[in-house]
Amino acid sequence: MLEALSYDFIQNALIAGLLVSMASGIIGSLIVVNRMVFLAGGIAHTAYGGIGVAVYFSLPIFLGASIFAVLAALLIASITLKHRERMDTFIGLMWAVGMAVGVVLIDITPGYQADFMSYLFGSILAVSQSDLWFMGGLLAVIIIIIIFWYRDILAVSYDSEYANLRGINVPFFYTLILILSALTVVVAIKVVGLILVIALLTIPVYIAERLSNTLFSMMILSGIFSSVFTIMGLWFSYEYDISSGASIILISAGSLFLFLGVQRVLK
Question: Keywords of this protein's UniProt record, alphabetized (predicted)?
């Protein structure tokens, strides 16, 4: 694959993979410890409505998907904070409506030939310079927020009642985590697509969780594992001419099964 690095699109794909992997490692850790996996899945599929809006109005895909995903995150936060018993129903509804809106808007866009596979399974080889700036900016924002509010986010993630007693604004940080999750999901869609995005956010985290004693170390290890899986997946995709998103997830899943097997043998 070394000769492939001379191509700009391969370089962009590699940089994008590393940026998204680090963001996914950090946010994926928060998603797992806050038990938000189902919520993140709902946001991912709702974001497809934003892709449809962007296509229909000729807007940047990231812009449309990000706005739609953030609005979905705000709505989900409002619902889950006030009506947690109805959460499954609302998430399922938003999931379906978001997908339906996206499909309809793409269908009625004049002259647009939809490449559904790129949205469902990622199109990392089509990453542009503007996409890289967006991904890099998001990762920078995530890192700054984690550094600045780490103790508060840690308290909210593991014991929200204790955090509330300490005077921490639990609804604010809960909503903030969901918004960051929404934006991370949007950039991860470019790498692995809607169908596989939850795997990217959870598989490396699951392995890291078994090897970590703190949330911070879990984030670091998750980012490292995700980066390694992404690089290996890109190499596998290049060598065998198959979908990069699916390759990344297969490498991740295979690594997880190998890890579990080794862990069982060592016990």
Answer: Membrane, Transmembrane, Transmembrane helix, Transport
Is the Cβ–Cβ distance between 139 and 181 less than 8 Å? no
Contact 61, 51 (CB under 8 A): yes
Nearest partner of 200 among 75, 14, 26, 10, judged by Cα: 26
> Domain limits at 94?
2-261
Specify if 266 maps to a domain.
Answer: no
Count CB-CB contacts under 10 A for residue 115.
11
Cα distances from 105 to residues 53, 55, 134, 174, 197, in angstroms, run 6, 8, 24, 31, 22
Q: What is the pLDDT of residue 53?
A: 87
Tally of domains in the chain: 1
CA dist., res. 211 & res. 221, Å (int): 8
Q: Look at residue 83 and tell me whether its pLDDT is greater than 80.
A: no
Is the residue at 267 inside a domain? Answer: no
DSSP letter string, 192-240 = HHHHHHHHHHHHHHHHHHHH-SSHHHHHHHHHHHHHHHHHHHHHHHHHH
